[in-house]
């Protein structure tokens, strides 16, 4: 035995593969003898390294180990064999085992063979083995650690009458029921099957609010309650014995400055939304919330504790929806001061709150033209509580325009939220990820704000209005998917036209621009309110910015296009030939091409934009500039291509030919590409659809790029991510990967040091010895191993 132990130990330390005969000899020795736990530990460690040899272990070893186990708990090697060994089935007679051992074994089998619970014999034996009531009351570790099999058993083995009997028995002993995640999940299913969900949810709510804020059970228990409440009908008769205690605890611990606990507030919010509660409860909740010493600080905070502010605002929104009578005009200034006019989650909630105030006849006109954030704080002089101050004089149009930063408007125009609706009453919160949403203006607020600004008879500086980017933002709104948003934008343009007409001599140039755009849109003969493609809308917006801010080189070209004809030819926007022939000199040419490409990059957002690109026949220009242009030009082209592949499928009649030509252009590019260019090429591949037309060339192109540049640690992670995307998206591509090719891919990951030593070793082991017995835990963040296994399985 010692020789075998020494051999195993050395093999583990050196990660050396034992030949099949050596390993078989060790296993045969264990089968014929009772060995120590230390010996079994070594076998387990070895199998964790080289799981492929688990197929050499006979079924009788498992039976031998099981029959000679005297301890209460099973050795981990037994469970490892059950999880990995395909010959160990649930047909074994395990009924004589102690309940703890039996549970761990059955749970391990269930993970590998979930269909076992479809066998009525297994279900019957399991039901006879387990005393369900005692198990729930005692909540032993073997139950809590193997919840999946008991949940599965409940779904199949318990009928309505059995559930009703079990629930009634538990209900009389709630005081001794142990709150664990597994027990609560099980009883929740029992309650659902016998229509006692409401009763059980009430018990969980009482339990939650009896816990200390430091309890580890708060998070999962509150999530369970919230999920239960979502399934209940609106105004359901939830019986809460002490509403005051729940409200006070939620507000106290949710608004505390240090280590706030948001779960209580979340449950209170769901309760208010779902329960049929008295008006006094809603009013008291609002009063306690607004009267808290930290309330104003939370509301007026900018960056710190965003989650806390978000939860407070969600609760306020729920309260005013439940009981509109608690809304008052004096609340509005604080909300405006808290609002930053952005697309952040917090500001989206605040705008919905303001919308509800206006909808419920709160006179918002008192606060026009609307101010926001720090500008509103200084103007409205908001102090330390919700019941706020008197109004100062109305802000002037010049003052409001001075508060609009050009940089922020440019950012919004570049990433315009085309799906944003004007009427946001019931619109779901959107988590914008492409850019920082807190630095983008919300068009749902911007258009009404500009409309209120232009609706007054106060004199307006058109130059300042346009230089600040306001007109460009309005024009960008013409590409919105929302009819109301476009209608509002056209309304603002009409108001602006009236200001231009009043002082026409001073604003003749912008009056001509307005007529030029209006006639161009009319010539498109679109269904009202006309929706421009985003490329068209951005071109008009960027023209205004260039002309109003006197951008050198671009301004004169835009003016020539504007003055060349009485109406914009929007079917040919941008007017490429005019644009490219309107300048001379290499420097001007480069400037204009990049300005033009930036419009295409930011404007390619939908199939209508793809149609514009296709009609303008731009791809040949892209290929020429990619071959002989600067790096900045190539990066812009790759970004345009990535956006194009994302919005239109890579079929033969779609973007497929463009994708193939781009791959050829990159493959034949004579110089070394930069890291940023390679990363963008990978993003282009990820954006391609799962069309078979493109599958083999796409994977072949990935191989070329990765084997050429994959040893760079800045490139390798994106390369592996792209490969995983392609393998999961395309079918029948495994033929492109032979063992030599897979080893080269693995070598790139090793040289770049992006693969951990553990993953590199596992990949090498799989390539050399096969993939039998290999399993990947969900917690492991492997880059290449899951993809490698998928490729190898497809080849079998």
TrEMBL record:
<dbReference type="GO" id="GO:0000463">
    <property type="term" value="P:maturation of LSU-rRNA from tricistronic rRNA transcript (SSU-rRNA, 5.8S rRNA, LSU-rRNA)"/>
</dbReference>
<dbReference type="InterPro" id="IPR039844">
    <property type="entry name" value="URB1"/>
</dbReference>
<dbReference type="GO" id="GO:0005730">
    <property type="term" value="C:nucleolus"/>
</dbReference>
<protein>
    <submittedName>
        <fullName>Nucleolar pre-ribosomal-associated protein 1</fullName>
    </submittedName>
</protein>
<feature type="domain" description="URB1 C-terminal">
    <location>
        <begin position="471"/>
        <end position="648"/>
    </location>
</feature>
<dbReference type="Pfam" id="PF16201">
    <property type="entry name" value="NopRA1"/>
</dbReference>
<dbReference type="InterPro" id="IPR032436">
    <property type="entry name" value="URB1_C"/>
</dbReference>
<dbReference type="GO" id="GO:0000466">
    <property type="term" value="P:maturation of 5.8S rRNA from tricistronic rRNA transcript (SSU-rRNA, 5.8S rRNA, LSU-rRNA)"/>
</dbReference>
């Amino acid at each position: 035995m010692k020789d075998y132990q020494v051999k195993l130990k050395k093999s583990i330390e050196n990660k050396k593969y034992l030949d099949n005969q050596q390993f078989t000899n060790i296993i045969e020795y264990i089968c014929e003898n009772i060995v120590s736990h230390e010996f079994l530990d070594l076998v387990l460690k070895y199998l964790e390294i080289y799981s492929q040899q688990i197929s050499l272990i006979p079924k009788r070893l498992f039976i031998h180990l099981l029959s000679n186990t005297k301890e209460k708990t099973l050795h981990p090697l037994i469970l490892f064999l059950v999880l990995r060994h395909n010959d160990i089935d649930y047909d074994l007679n395990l009924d004589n085992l102690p309940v703890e051992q039996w549970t761990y074994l059955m749970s391990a089998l269930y993970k590998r063979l979930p269909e076992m619970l479809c066998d009525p014999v297994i279900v019957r034996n399991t039901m006879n083995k387990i005393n369900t009531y005692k198990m729930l009351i005692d909540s032993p570790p073997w139950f809590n650690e193997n919840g999946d099999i008991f949940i599965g058993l409940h779904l199949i083995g318990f009928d309505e009458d059995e559930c009703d009997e079990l629930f009634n028995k538990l209900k009389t002993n709630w005081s001794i029921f142990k709150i664990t995640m597994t027990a609560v999940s099980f009883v929740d299913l029992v309650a659902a099957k016998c229509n006692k969900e409401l009763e059980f949810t009430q018990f969980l709510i009482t339990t939650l609010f009896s816990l200390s804020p430091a309890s580890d059970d708060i998070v999962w228990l509150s999530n369970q309650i919230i999920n239960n409440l979502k399934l209940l009908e609106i105004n359901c008769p939830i019986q809460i014995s002490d509403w005051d205690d729940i409200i006070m605890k939620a507000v106290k611990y949710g608004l505390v400055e240090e280590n706030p606990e948001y779960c209580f507030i979340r449950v209170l919010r769901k309760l208010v939304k779902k329960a049929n509660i008295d008006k006094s409860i809603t009013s008291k909740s609002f009063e306690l919330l607004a009267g808290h010493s930290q309330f104003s600080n939370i509301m007026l905070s900018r960056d710190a504790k965003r989650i806390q502010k978000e939860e407070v605002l969600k609760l306020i929104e729920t309260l005013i929806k439940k009981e509109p009578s608690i809304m008052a005009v004096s609340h509005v200034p604080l909300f405006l001061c808290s609002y930053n006019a952005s697309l952040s989650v917090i500001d989206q909630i605040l705008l919905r709150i303001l919308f509800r105030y206006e909808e419920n006849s709160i006179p918002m006109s008192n606060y026009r033209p609307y101010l926001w954030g720090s500008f509103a704080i200084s103007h409205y002089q908001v102090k330390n509580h919700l019941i706020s101050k008197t109004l100062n004089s109305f802000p002037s149009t010049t003052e409001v325009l001075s508060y609009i930063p050009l940089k922020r408007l440019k950012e919004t125009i570049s990433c315009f939220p085309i799906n944003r609706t004007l009427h946001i009453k019931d619109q779901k919160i959107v988590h914008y990820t492409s850019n920082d949403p807190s630095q983008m203006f919300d068009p749902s607020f911007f258009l009404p704000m500009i409309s209120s600004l232009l609706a007054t008879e106060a004199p307006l500086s058109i130059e300042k209005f346009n230089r600040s980017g306001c007109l460009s933002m309005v024009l960008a709104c013409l590409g919105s998917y929302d009819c109301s948003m476009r209608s509002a934008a056209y309304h603002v343009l009409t108001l602006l036209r009236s200001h231009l007409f009043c002082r026409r001599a001073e604003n003749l140039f912008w009056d001509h621009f307005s007529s030029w755009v209006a006639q161009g849109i009319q010539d498109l003969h679109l269904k009202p309110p006309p929706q421009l493609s985003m490329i068209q809308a951005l071109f008009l917006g960027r023209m205004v910015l260039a002309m109003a801010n006197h951008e050198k080189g671009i301004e004169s070209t835009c003016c020539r296009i504007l003055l060349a004809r009485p109406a914009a030819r929007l079917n040919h926007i941008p007017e490429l030939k005019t644009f490219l022939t309107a300048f001379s000199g290499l420097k001007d040419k480069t400037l204009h091409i990049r300005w033009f490409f930036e419009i295409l990059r930011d404007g390619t957002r939908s199939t209508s934009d793809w149609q514009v690109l296709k009609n303008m026949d731009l791809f040949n220009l892209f290929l020429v500039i990619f071959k002989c242009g600067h790096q900045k030009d190539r990066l812009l082209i790759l970004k345009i291509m990535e956006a194009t592949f994302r919005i239109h499928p890579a079929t033969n009649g779609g973007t497929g030919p463009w994708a193939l030509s781009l791959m050829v252009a990159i493959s034949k590019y004579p110089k070394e590409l930069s890291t940023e260019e390679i990363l963008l090429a990978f993003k282009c591949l990820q954006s391609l659809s799962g069309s078979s037309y493109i599958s083999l060339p796409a994977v072949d192109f990935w191989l070329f790029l990765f084997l050429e540049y994959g040893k760079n640690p800045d490139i390798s992670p994106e390369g592996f991510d792209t490969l995983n995307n392609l393998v999961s998206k395309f079918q029948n591509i495994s033929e492109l990967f032979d063992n030599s090719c897979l080893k080269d891919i693995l070598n790139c990951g090793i040289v770049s040091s992006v693969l951990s030593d553990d993953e590199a070793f596992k990949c090498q082991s799989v390539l050399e010895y096969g993939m039998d017995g290999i399993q990947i835990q969900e917690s492991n963040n492997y880059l290449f191993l899951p993809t490698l296994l998928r490729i190898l399985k497809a080849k079998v």
